[in-house]
Amino acid sequence: xxxxCLTLVFALSVSARCVRKNQLEQAGTPAKQPVVTGTKTLASxxxxxxxxxxxxxxWNTTSAAAPSRGxxxxxxxxxxxxxxxxxxxxxxxxxxxxxxxxxxxxxxxxSGKGSGNCGSLKGVCFNGGMQASMYDLITTxxxxxxxxxxxxxxxxxxxxxxxxxxxxxxxTDVPSAVELVNGPNPPEWLLTFNxxxxxxxxxxxxxxxxxxxxxxxxxxxxxxxxxxxxxxVAPGPAVPTSNWLPDFFAACNCQDxxxxxxxxxxxxxxxxxxxxxNTFRSKYSDKxxxxxxxxxxxxxxxxxxxxxxxxxxxxxxxxKDSGFVDRVFWNSGNQLTHDDKNVCxxxxxxxxGKPGPLLEVFENIDCT
Length: 368
Hints:
- By secondary structure, this protein is α/β, with parallel strands linked by helices.
- The protein contains nine helices and eleven strands.
- A five-stranded parallel sheet has the order 4-3-11-10-9. A two-stranded antiparallel sheet has the order 1-2.
């Protein structure tokens, strides 16, 4: 999901952890070649170039280190857990424990949550610097995510707690995820590894990167103890059309473990996004797709409210009409305070907690 963003060091203004390279280079090559620092491969830039040309998309022949927006809505540094140091994740888990079992390969039915024509489609992705109270201002959303298994940003209302879908963004979060799904209040859904195919840097941090084989090894404890009340969303690579995901499934032999696939998209127009989603769907048609990060991005901040609004309406309509996109998480719920060209025009709540002009557009989206 690249589309809201891990010791929950929210106080760092490392919403920069969500800094995203604006466009990928062709065929999934990073905007700049990664540089090796010690044992980690770090991106030397936060700019990305589009893999797509807006008309067609080809599956990459190599699993490139691709761009990504970031993990870490709470600003945890590289390799740290998204679990708060202040207590067990079990004590911070939401109590929404309805539904399903992990490990099913059948296409799950929509949760039935939500109302109106959009049903349960309308979700929001929050980034670093969010306050839990911000979600209460977005009254028509049915779910929200950030890059953590717990809720950052102060006290959360019952609705905010209920609608939060936790994420296991890094390999270091696997033990806490196992604890959560086997605890007394397992979540209905858990998102797994966020953009493991790319490492990026921000002020004072860098995010870890995993090969498909490393990720397959790291996820084994969760595969062994998935609990009985949680469904799992597959890892979301920065480049959905790279070979990272098929190589991961081959290494872990765990494709059937997941109940939904995960795509992130940042392109200047909805047609290009839809082309990429349909290309992905042509390869993976056995489960619904969650579009966990999406926003219009032209590599700058010059689209304007009218074009961003049009993009939003077209993406939600496509999702509703598709029959296979089960969730759309608009990025970003909150305004970032650093320069992130992917979400600089798509925020709903400003950095002071006040509604922005796009919030009204989102609230009125009816997926038609």
